[in-house]
Amino acid sequence: MATFKFLLYKSNVKRDGLYPVCLRITKNRKLKYISLDMYAREDQWNEEAARYKKDKRATPNYEKYNALLTHYEERKDSLLRKFTEGRVDWTLNQFEEQFLGVSKRGKVYDYFLKHIGILKETNHIGNAKAYERTLHVLGKYDKKINERLFQEIDLKYVNAFNVALEKDRCCGNTRKYYLKTLRALLNKAIKDNEASRITYPFGNGGFEISSLEEETRKRYLLSEDLTLAKNSYQDDYTMEYTRRLFLFSYYCFGISFIDMATLTTQNIEKLETGEHIVYKRQKIKNQRGVKTIKIPVTETLREILDWFKANTPLVGNYLVPVITKNYRGEQLYNHIRSRYVRYNKNLKKLGKTLGIERLPLTSYVSRHTMAMTLQNQSVSREVISQVLGHTNLETTNVYLDSFETSVVDKVAELL
């Protein structure tokens, strides 16, 4: 049997004679005091009624304070009913956590900031930036986002947010990005008991994020353009350095820029068949069951690595010359992002220098070209999926479906 009482916590008096107003819980001969962020002097408090005295001269706002205490009492009763219905033999700490958790529920903006802070503290900088970008966009659309409660983020709100993004000429894939991030935050908030499923705007009958997906043009080099990139040595140092980074990505099974940038000598391992670059993709390395990607260090790759070692200022034990200082955490992430922007600008210049007119060179082109090359050589999609580092074949199928045109071309010849 548990007992509850509002009282003044006499063991912690302030200099002005005010005592904290607490909820005291007694269960199994153990005590727990929960501070309610309210204060009173002894002459303001009615011990028997467990409320502020009805005296406006002593406490001008006693009605407001007593109403708040009644609200806390209702919350306590509601929580006890919940425990009883669930047949939960609750502990004092469990009661305190849920009692205070209920009082703190609801603020979307605060929860965003809290989650972003946790991600940064645990060095998930890229993920934190995704939430920061989404919160920034929400703030542009919703001037009251600082005060918005989770219960207000319903289907009507999400539909309006999507329309606002569309009016700002955001493409479907960009809108999908922001709404997926918002959905992930809502799911976590529900799990943390900060939000309710009652107003959840996604799922069955809710907003369908998948409907926003647009097929993007697959950016790969034709074989003659790939040959140009492989064999056209550049006299300009920046262009040659850029060309070799592009080819390094291509020969490393289309490794992404951030994964390429963070490779070190520790990623090179000797296996039964020789030296390999072994790593997990930054994008999914924290997911369950993610496998390592093993790239054989071929003679071509070795030549590129040797060129980097002889001609570029490698920092520490990094394999490629992207990171130029010993940064950590968010500073490192921002450094790589700035180098990524510069790399793509240089790739566009390189493409023009090589006379590649079909498409502008970007960091993604090396990855897409690698996948297309393997498919044209009749490599199975299961193998392509493995070297791309995809966690399932469905992702690879979406990635490759619009690549292959040779079969359609042959069908057209039959007409």
TrEMBL record:
InterPro entries attached here?
Arm-DNA-bind_5 (IPR035386), DNA_brk_join_enz (IPR011010), Integrase-like_cat_sf (IPR013762), Integrase_catalytic (IPR002104), Integrase_recombinase_N (IPR010998), SAM-like_dom (IPR025269), Tyrosine_recombinase_XerCD (IPR050090)
Q: Where is the Arm DNA-binding domain?
A: 6-77
Q: Which Pfam families match?
A: Arm-DNA-bind_5, Phage_int_SAM_5, Phage_integrase
Species for this entry: Butyricimonas hominis
Q: Where is the Phage integrase SAM-like domain?
A: 108-199
Cited PANTHER family? PHAGE INTEGRASE-RELATED, PROPHAGE INTEGRASE INTD-RELATED
Coiled-coil residues are none
Any idea where the Tyr recombinase domain is? 255-403
Can you name this protein? Site-specific integrase
Q: What family does the entry list?
A: Belongs to the 'phage' integrase family.
Entry keyword annotation includes DNA-binding:
yes
Is DNA-binding among this UniProt entry's keywords?
yes
Q: Which domain of life is it from?
A: Bacteria
Keywords, ordered alphabetically: DNA recombination, DNA-binding
